[in-house]
Amino acid sequence: MLPTEVFTCFPGQMWDRVLSKVKKAVVFMDDKCAESLHWNGGATSVFESGARNLKQFSSFEAGGENEPKAVFVVSTLLKGRTADIIQDIVGLSHFQYCVVFTTVAHSIHLLANNVTAVLEGNPVFEQFEDKLCEWMGDMNYTAEVMHAPVVFAPVSPQLFLAPTFAHLFPLLPRDLETINMKRPEKKRFGSLTDVDLHSLTPELQIEIKSLASAVNSMFESTSTREESFALGPMSRLIAGELANHPQAKNRRKTAPNKASIVFIDRTLDLTGAAGHHGDSLVEKILTVLQPLPGHTTDVQVDMLELTNLQRTPDSQPTLAPGCLVQTQSSTARLLWETMLASKQKEAVMEVRRQLVEAASKENLPIKMGLGRVTPEQLCSYVQLFKSNWGALESHCGVIQLGLATAQTLRHPTLPRWDSCLAFERLLLQVYYTHTHAHTHTHTLCHPTLPQWDP
Question: InterPro entries given for it (predicted)?
Fold first, then answer.
């Protein structure tokens, strides 16, 4: 298997660890893990693996009387509020077998419990297993606690996101002030580049260590020795933590595959992140459509076009939204990758082509349109599937992507995008003109001196 294919398989392999335990279980999952699952087969994969139910990780949920097994999947330390919620759920249920997966490695649990000594086994996890048996009401019941780094969302074979760490943000000048306020005057840092990991808050230290641990797990699983580069104070801390990871030293000596990883503080290029010069359909979809509740990487696609409901202020909550993630259909996956990688014009035309092809396969009365693709045209193609449930089910992935495209193209805020782009180009033009004129003046005022020849 090629190294790139190994990386592509990694997120799914981590979820396979979880899915291997869900048979006949009620699964409780927090939002961050649910978002990762969303891109790794979704709830369908959980039920296909034999789970009885899938519920939100909440103190207001519980298992039924005839549900003796539970699986918890969380993205946090097994202490504090997380432990309280697990205790609440177990206390309200009749479980005899509990499995807990956490994305936080055992070594970080030791750090969070102020344990600095090197210990054999996983004592923190073992202690939590005892607590689970205690909460279930019988120490002879079965409890398992494991680490599974299910933090990556494979948006495409070439692009992974880590929604678990979406809130992790580079250090800012005001952070330096906060850090220095707690330090003696003679030991205060002069700049953000001087800040070390131990000067940060315990919560931020754990976040950085967790991210480094997740990346390390990926390299361990793929037998890869990495060469790290960092741009920015926060990136330097993350890269340093990865380099100092206990498993990294040995891996870099023996791993057959090699890869470079570049950590970049996004604040070094705010113009690139906030600009409107990108010619990407997906970028505009993610910008104008509302995010899925609890998600940072997917949006809500209005499915009202496929029903006979009238559009009213109250009609929206009655219908579950569609989304961009399409893991069941290979055609929809290929269309998504085209939308992700192509320019907007090419992507929109491919969406139309796929809708036409899907309608043709189902012998629907489609009228092929030429020229410019319009949102009305895309919606008219989608509506052909409305009364044909078999066709709707077969092509629901392509239909959702088609609706997302149409709703973006006709969104009332999209013209602002073009206006912002026009202003950005004008600013660049003015800047270029000013810089060019300044350079010309500078040249006139400071002519090149002839070389002195004694």
Answer: Sec1-like
Segment holding 26, helix H or strand E: strand 26-29
pLDDT digits (tens, 9 = 90+) for 178-190: 999 989 988 999 9
Q: For residues 223 and 253, give the distance between their C-alpha atoms in angstroms, rounded to a whole number.
A: 11
The strand ranges marked E within 125-280 are 142-147, 153-156, 159-161, 224-231, 257-264
Q: What are the tokens at 84? A: 């309280």
Reported as a single tens digit per residue, the pLDDT across 297-320 is: 999 999 988 888 777 776 566 788
Residue predicted with more confidence, 438 or 262: 262
In whole angstroms, give the CA distance from residue 307 to residue 389.
Answer: 11
- 399-415: per-residue pLDDT in tens? 999 999 999 999 998 88
Q: What distances in angstroms separate CA 75 from CA 3, 40, 148, 292, 347, one per listed residue?
A: 27, 16, 9, 19, 35
HEC per residue, 79-138: CCHHHHHHHHHHHCCCCCEEEEEECCCHHHHHHHCCCCCCCCCCHHHHHHHHHHHHHHCC
Which helix (H) or strand (E) covers residue 28, if one does? strand 26-29
Six-digit token string for 419: 């206006």
Domains observed in the chain: 3-147 (3.40.50.2060), 167-268 (no CATH), 281-409 (no CATH)
**Residue 438: its pLDDT value, please?**
57
